[in-house]
Design goal:
This protein has about 250 residues and is of the alpha/beta class. It has a single domain, classed as Alpha/Beta hydrolase fold, catalytic domain (Rossmann fold), CATH 3.40.50. It is about 40% helix and about 20% strand. It has 10 helices and 8 strands. The protein has an 8-stranded mixed beta sheet with strand order 1-2-4-3-5-6-7-8, with helices on both faces. Helix 1 links the parallel strand 3 and strand 4.
Amino acid sequence: MPTIANIYFQAYHEGETLPVVLIHGAGGTLLSWPSEIRRLPGARIYALDLPGHGKSSGQGQRTIEAYASSILDWLEAVGILRAVFIGHSMGGAIAQTLALDYPDHVIGLGLIGSAARLRVNPVLIEKSARDETFSSAVEKVISWSFSANISENLKALVSRRLAEIRPQVLSGDFMACDTYDRTRRIEEITCPTVVICGAEDRMTPVKNSRFLADHILTAQLSIVPEAGHMVMIEKPAEVATALVHFLTAIPY
């Protein structure tokens, strides 16, 4: 798959169908999205590696706004005028920023395990930035990211992938999340929106998703039982079903 505007991406279901861009969370890659979601029927899916992540070049960013700007550059380079943006956690913050600051480019939003304000423990930011404490930061993130029912094999896979990110990139992601706050503007979002969260999410608890759904007038809320922060990894079929239901209702 190509790298355009310094962003590596994979495209699925090319054609004239609804364009959908998947934006992963802090320390993630496009593989953070299971195949069920990267291959949603009836949509043209683009799964991205953000700058500094996966196979994309660069050092990563320190603000959500900078990540949003990099995606705008990519959109222009690939010739996509408008799209639905589906983001997990930090990716959801990037999607919100696109809808608030560049609404002409946004058809709809999927906000998964996200919030209007993303707080990060300062100890986690510090530990993730240092080689000698990076592994303990990864362990802490993984311990907070899943429900009690997650298989150890799946947890280990996600842990290995997170450990591959450079410490300064993960720390920068956490800094970007910690300074993100759109609580006073969230009601300005008017595009079709679906909010999805795991019932056992400890990173961005259900109350954060309820806030989004209550303050975005066009939003619908889906709470997935027996799932944590990585809801799309724990329950890919359920998340895919909710997204297909949402996307098929968007005229294009």
